[in-house]
Every structure is written in C-alpha cells, then in structure tokens.
Amino acid sequence: MAEEPVLQDQEDDIEALKKALADEKEKAESYLSSWQRERADFSNYKKRIEQEKKESLTWTNAELIKSLLPVVDDMERAFSMVDPGFKDTSWVEGFRQIQRKLQELLRDHGCTEIECVGQPFDPNLHEAVAYDEGDEGIVIAEHRKGYKMNDRVLRAPQVSVGKGKNEQTAKLENNENENQA
Fold it and tell me: What are phi and psi of 162, to 5 degrees?
C-alpha cells in the first residue's frame, strides 16, 4: 500500500513537469515570434533609412540642379542674341558644346524640360503670367522654360494662357471658314 502514494506522487510530479514543459515551450514560441517580428521591423527600418538617404541625396541634387537652371536660361538667351555673322565661329561652337554637355548632365540626373505650348493649362504644372487671345485654357506661349525631375516639378514654366477669342476675331474666322466652304 505504501507504493500507491509513491506512485501517485510520481504521477503528480510527471504532470507538473509536463505542465512546466508546456509552459516553457509556449514562452519559447512567444519569444521566437517576438524576435522574428523585431527582426522584420529592424529590416524594414533599415530599408526605410536607405530609401530616405536616397531621396535626400536626390533632392539635394535637385536643389543644385535648380540653382543651375538660370545659367541654362542665360546660355539660351546668349545664343539667341549671337550675331548671324558669328554663328559659325569656333568659339560660339565651343560654347554650344558646353551647353549640350550641361543639358546632357541635367538629363542624366533625371531633369527634363516640361513641354507646355499647345497643352491644356495645368496649375500644378504651369505658372500663368499672362492671358492672351487664343484657345481658352490652352498654353499659347512659354516665357521661361520649366523643368521636372523624376516627375516632380523643379521649376514651373511661365506661360501665357489663352482666354478665348474676342468677338471681332471670332467673326473674322467664321467669315473665313464660310468663304472657304
């Protein structure tokens, strides 16, 4: 009879050990899943930091490029003012080559001109500086070139936007269209 209480005690000990083992397994699984989540969070953090570094560098470059745009404008104005007798001289061609290299450098960094003449006016993309007679809501002239970098506007083009045609012009066009028909 003395064996029954000993057997009972051993079974109780075994049950207690099984329960303790199950509790420890549960804790280990909890620790493992927490560790895995933290590892994923850290990995995502590293990726986000790398992306932010790239974006920061890109937009630092964008600021530099933005500061060069007036130089590009000045070069274009200078070439438009060159006397026809000097257009084919070697020094003018040398400056044209410099201008081409500068434009190529801008393109290599993702900076492109914004095409606007003939396009519908978009206040998110264009800066209206004048309204003139022409097709309503359409950009009819560009006063200063605009540029974008990776689909973000660096500098909006300054444009004239059509405000429609006055009555006299509309009547003249209608008369011309009727005469042609």
Answer: -70, 135
Cβ 154 vs Cβ 123: under 8 Å:
no
Q: Is residue 69 part of a domain?
A: no
User: Which residue do the tokens 């995502």 mark?
Assistant: 44
**Domain encompassing residue 122:** 114-181
Domain with residue 174: its CATH number is: 2.30.22.10
**Pairing between β-strand 147-149 and β-strand 111-113 as defined by DSSP bridges:** antiparallel
Report pLDDT digits (tens) over 113-130. 999 999 999 999 999 999
In a domain, 79, yes or no: no
C-beta of residue 74 within 8 angstroms of C-beta of residue 99: no
Q: Tens digit of pLDDT for each residue in 148-179? A: 998 889 999 999 999 887 665 556 666 666 76
C-alpha 38/C-alpha 151 separation (Å) is 35
| Predicted model pTM | 0.62
The number of domains in the chain is: 1
Q: Is residue 133 part of a domain?
A: yes
